[in-house]
Specification:
With 424 residues, this protein is an alpha/beta fold. It has helices spanning 55-64, 84-94, 116-121, 146-156, 181-187, 190-207, 219-231, 241-245, 267-279, 317-327, 332-347; strands at residues 2-4, 7-10, 32-35, 37-42, 67-72, 101-104, 106-107, 127-130, 160-164, 210-213, 235-239, 284-285, 363-373, 392-402, 405-406. The longest helix is centred in the middle third of the chain and has 18 residues, at 190-207.
């Protein structure tokens, strides 16, 4: 492989002399070279909630996990990315402070119709909305009837709508004092995901909008998505490492570091998600990295209902997925499809997620057979609370390269801010 000015210019047969070139990526006997991972679902929270996470820490964590490109969600920053001014604030907070390349999603909420087109033209990759409470007041859910108006607007300029699909009418109350994970799980049943996905697909069917279902956790939602695909609807879907790694039985009482929405479900759902990946119903695996200060996780009381629902895992996504994938008979090519090429293609980033002529020279050097025990002190995210603490995973990221330069986590950042191809 030959690299020039940060891009791959040729992929050739093995030639020992290439290993002596300046800046060459040299591999040990136990290492393989993967494309840099693309994580299209990351909550950086900066500006406004940089005490939860910020661009320097989030992108260091990404680089430590072999991720070379992230797309930042429009919440939980203040302001959320709902208009051009907020997007400028995001870019201002990120410029010169990112260790990997960073792009941005916009948001669709009640009251910002008419602002979506300008955001699209300014380079966001699409729009995120919620059908149920987002957890932060400045990013309200779309009320009944609003979804159709949003899909029509987004379809009018050929955009993409991402949907947090939980139906508020089927969510239930959970006792705030309960430390039982079963009580929290019962409050967000599978039927909530299934009903919300059906609503989204009905709206896409009417409007022709391209839609994407984020963080699928329920088996019933897969059946809805598969049927829509067979019908010819432009729908894609993702799941996350925690849904592929854990089951409800793994969650001890009061272990709120496992809380996320939708929740980690029973083993049958995990098995269905793996089957969905194998069959292509699920397109990609992304982190939904959403850390917070430890006090917001209610670790003292162990109450699930009011704990923040999010898991910080951008650094651990690759080993978590690879560890479980190889046990199920998948190979690294499958993982590259789910976590590199697939997310890049989904977001419209043809230079990312692959090792081919014309692509950015973004690489992950992985020791695929080496195991390690997750220790919070080794995590680069701002707050190291994680459900993976103490878990043995397989696959150690030893180097990460961005556009032909090895990333030095202690050195100056050289990531770039990305705009959607064809924008502006």
């Amino acid at each position: 492989m030959r690299v020039r000015h940060g891009s791959v210019v040729a992929v050739e047969e093995y030639d020992e002399s290439l290993g002596t070139a300046p800046g060459a990526v040299s591999l040990a006997e136990d290492e393989v070279l993967l494309p840099g991972l693309v994580d299209t679902h990351v909550h950086v929270n900066d500006p406004g909630r940089a005490d939860w996470e910020g661009f320097p820490t989030a992108t260091r964590a990404a680089a430590a996990g072999g991720v070379t490109t992230i797309l930042d969600m429009p919440l939980n920053s203040i302001p959320p990315t709902l208009d051009a001014a907020a997007l400028d604030a995001k870019r201002g907070a990120a410029v010169g402070r990112v260790h990997v390349d960073v792009g941005f999603w916009g948001g669709a909420v009640p009251g910002n119709r008419g602002r979506l087109g300008p955001l699209w033209r300014d380079g966001v990759f699409g729009f995120k909305c919620f059908l149920s409470d987002s957890g932060v007041p400045e990013f309200p859910a779309l009320e009944p009837g609003m979804l159709d108006a949003v899909t029509e607007e987004v379809a009018s300029f050929g955009g993409l709508l991402l949907v947090h699909a939980e139906d508020p009418g089927t969510l239930r109350d959970c006792d705030p004092a309960s430390t039982r994970y079963a009580d929290f799980l019962a409050s967000r049943p599978e039927a909530s995901e299934q009903a919300a996905v059906a609503t989204v697909l009905d709206s896409a069917r009417t409007s022709g909008c391209r839609v994407h279902v984020v963080h699928v956790s329920a088996a019933a939602a897969l059946a809805e998505i598969a049927a829509a695909r067979a019908e010819g609807l432009a729908v894609s879907a993702e799941t996350c490492p925690h849904y592929l790694s854990f089951t409800a039985d793994d969650v001890p009482a009061g272990a709120t570091e496992f809380k996320c929405c939708p929740p980690i479900r029973a083993a049958a759902h995990r098995d269905a998600l793996w089957q969905g990946l194998a069959e292509g119903t699920l397109d990609i695996v992304v982190s939904d990295h959403s850390p917070c200060p430890p006090e917001l996780k209610n670790r003292d009381s162990g109450g699930f209902a009011d704990a923040w629902g999010g898991i910080g895992s951008v650094q651990l996504g690759l080993p978590a997925v690879w560890h479980a994938a190889r046990e199920r008979g998948h190979d690294l090519a499958d993982v590259v499809g789910w976590m590199c090429t697939g997310p890049a293609d989904f977001a419209g980033l043809p230079r990312k997620g692959r090792i081919s002529p014309g692509a950015d020279a973004d690489f992950c050097v992985l020791a695929p057979d080496e195991t390690f025990t997750v220790e919070p002190r080794h995590l680069q995210q701002r707050h190291a609370l994680t459900p993976y603490n103490g878990r043995v995973l397989t696959g150690v990221v030893r180097q990460t390269w961005l556009r032909g330069t090895r990333i030095d986590l202690d050195g100056p950042p050289h990531g770039r801010l990305l705009r959607r191809r064809g924008a502006g």
